[in-house]
Design brief:
- The complex is a heterodimer of chains A (200) and B (381).
- Chain A is an alpha/beta fold and 200 residues long.
- Chain A contains seven helices and four strands.
- The longest helix of chain A is centred in the first third of the chain and has 18 residues.
- Helix content of chain B is 47%, strand content 12%.
- Classes of the chains: A alpha/beta (200), B alpha+beta (381).
């Protein structure tokens, strides 16, 4: 068990530990959420949009997400593209090689349900949640790069509710206001997070 | 299902290495395999003695799926074959359907198909050149090339609403006519693109590191290229002057003035260079097509809702960015194809990898694989 997990356990049990715990949690969540290095598990069409999202026009780096094709370096696995039964063990093994804490974004309909390949094919896994714990589902065939960025922002919101103590979730969001704290919705002048992926 | 997935048998080495041989497994997830290809490499020191590509990690059964769909419903499936150049598979399939059902396509639709496919060729070659360059460490080149691809993708989005899976070419015509101002923006792109190609030429092909990595690596002789069924830039890089647009011409290609660039040495450098020059030629074709195109219908008249061609079979092929892409269709007279078979150029070109890689260093294998430009949606289908 990692040191940080033991810290959480110790704080939760101690007198007045909850106050310290929530402060530590907000720092840890902030740090984890703002630097989500991505493992681009691109197998098919969606991989093209995954590349597009990290290149000049869409520029993933500004959200702190940097594609790094090495499971040991990364925090979030973006599964982009159809996963066949032959490929699934490799994806599973790569996920197992990633260091905790780790998250999964299922990008594209194929990874959610098999998508267009749901009904009458024999080789496609009908959704990666059959063997991976998925945090964010991102629909589209393929989703636009903007929606992928939105998915990362949604994941960040989810991370903000996590606690280092076992079996505990926090209410609300980051409590540490930081300079340069942008969200896509606020930047576009909208009232909430942008839904993204609207096709014509 | 869960039990099937849990098994890990794909990582067992099928081959028992001898004492002085090292077996290295590259892939199926590896940044330089351009998809989900696995290569089992046997090494003597750092020299490849045998490289064996293992395919099928993206086999989605598209050919089988086509048998359960009507002729029009197959078109979106063909988008997902070669996802770097979706327009080609659309067009090859539609040509086979049109041949099978005896549909005459209006002239304007043919021009639109030529324009989008030449743009797609540029986009695909940019992806190919860029990712192959990134494999050799020239990441800047990837960004330059991807910038050009992004502009084409934007133009396609304006045309048909999708960035990647266009579903644009339909049996009997195309789905949309060009929007207002689109032709001008494409012409402007062609002008800018030539400058960008000059930049890429100087930045990448003028770079001594890139030249040293590619020259003399993975030499494919013209005889071997023909014997192994290579096509597209892989065959033309070896000096085989074979381009379906010229030598088995189709659509309105005879009306355009363009050259077929060929290489001489058949190494990775020549293959990459052929792709670069093809982009210049594609710009020429797009400009001529936009100038020649006249107003008119974009869909064949009298098309039934449900196509049911007479029993028979048809094969048609086009020159995709990777080579001769053919679709063979068999009809039994019903509204669904009895059988669809795709002749994939990427599959045939990938078969060259063991021959080309033998005797080279392990790091050259990556360059050779990049120069063959496989797209695994099309290899595995």
């Amino acid at each position: 068990m990692a040191l940080i997990d033991r810290l959480g356990e110790a704080l939760e049990g101690g007198q007045g530990g909850g106050i310290i715990l929530s402060t530590v949690d907000s720092l840890v969540d902030w740090a984890r959420g703002k630097s989500l290095w991505a493992m681009p598990m691109g197998t098919a069409c969606c991989a093209m949009e995954l590349i597009a999202a990290s290149f000049n026009k869409f520029d993933f780096d500004r959200h702190g997400t940097f594609p790094r094709p090495d499971p040991r370096h990364t925090d979030v696995m973006i599964v982009a593209g159809t996963i066949t039964k032959k490929m699934a063990p490799a994806v599973k093994r790569l996920y197992e090689q990633m260091a905790d804490p780790k998250w999964v974004i299922a990008m594209g309909n194929c990874t959610i349900s098999g998508g267009i390949f749901y009904y009458d094919t024999y080789s496609v896994v009908r959704g990666i949640d059959e063997f991976l714990p998925v945090d964010v589902y991102l629909a589209g065939c393929p989703p636009r790069p903007e929606s992928l960025q939105d998915a990362v922002l949604r994941l960040r919101e989810r991370i903000a509710t996590e606690s280092i103590a076992p079996d505990r979730r926090r209410e609300g969001s980051y409590t540490l206001p930081m300079p340069g704290d942008i969200s896509l919705g606020a930047r576009l002048g909208g009232s909430g997070p942008d839904t993204g992926g609207e096709s014509r | 299902m869960a039990a099937e997935i849990g098994q890990d048998e794909c990582f067992v080495n099928e081959v028992e290495p001898s004492v002085d041989e090292l077996v290295v497994n590259i892939g199926p997830s590896h940044p330089s395999t351009h998809g989900v290809c696995r290569v089992i490499v046997r090494l003597d020191g750092e020299v490849v003695t045998k490289a064996e590509p293992v395919i099928g990690y993206l086999h989605r059964g598209i050919e089988k799926m086509a048998e359960n769909r009507t002729y029009l419903q197959v078109v979106p499936l063909t988008d997902r074959l070669d996802y770097v150049g979706s327009m080609y598979a659309n067009w090859a399939y539609c040509r086979a359907v049109e041949r099978l059902a005896g549909i005459r396509v209006p002239e304007r639709a043919e021009y639109l198909r030529v324009i989008v496919c030449e743009m797609q060729r540029i986009a695909s070659h940019m992806m190919s050149l860029g990712s192959a360059a990134a494999d050799t460490g020239a990441f800047t080149m990837f960004i330059y090339a991807f910038d050009q691809r992004e502009r084409i993708v934007e133009a396609f989005e304006e045309l048909c609403g999708a960035r990647l899976t266009y579903n644009y070419v339909r049996p009997g015509g195309v789905s949309f006519d060009i929007p207002e101002g689109w032709a001008e923006s494409v012409l402007a792109f062609c002008r800018d693109h030539r400058t960008a190609l000059d930049d890429i030429d100087a930045l990448y092909f003028g770079n001594v590191i890139a030249r040293d990595r590619m020259k003399g690596v993975g030499v494919l002789s013209a005889e071997d290229a023909v014997a192994w069924g290579a096509s597209g830039p892989v065959a033309r890089g070896s000096g085989v002057n074979w381009d379906l647009r010229k030598h088995d011409t189709y659509s309105v290609y005879p009306r355009f003035d363009f050259d077929v660039p060929t290489g001489t040495n058949g190494d990775c450098y020549d293959r990459a260079r052929v792709r670069l020059f093809e982009c210049y030629e594609s710009c020429r074709i797009i400009e001529q097509a936009l100038a020649q195109m006249e107003p008119g219908p974009i869909n064949a008249s009298g098309m039934p809702r449900l196509l049911a061609p007479r029993p028979g079979d048809a094969y048609d092929h086009i020159e995709s960015a990777r080579g001769s892409l053919g679709v063979y269709l068999v009809s039994d007279g019903s509204v669904r194809p009895y059988r669809m078979k795709v002749r994939s150029p990427a599959f045939c070109n990938l078969a060259l990898l063991p021959m080309l890689a033998e005797g080279h260093m392990l790091s050259d294998l990556v360059v050779i694989l990049g120069s063959l430009d496989p797209v695994f949606g099309e290899v595995d289908r």
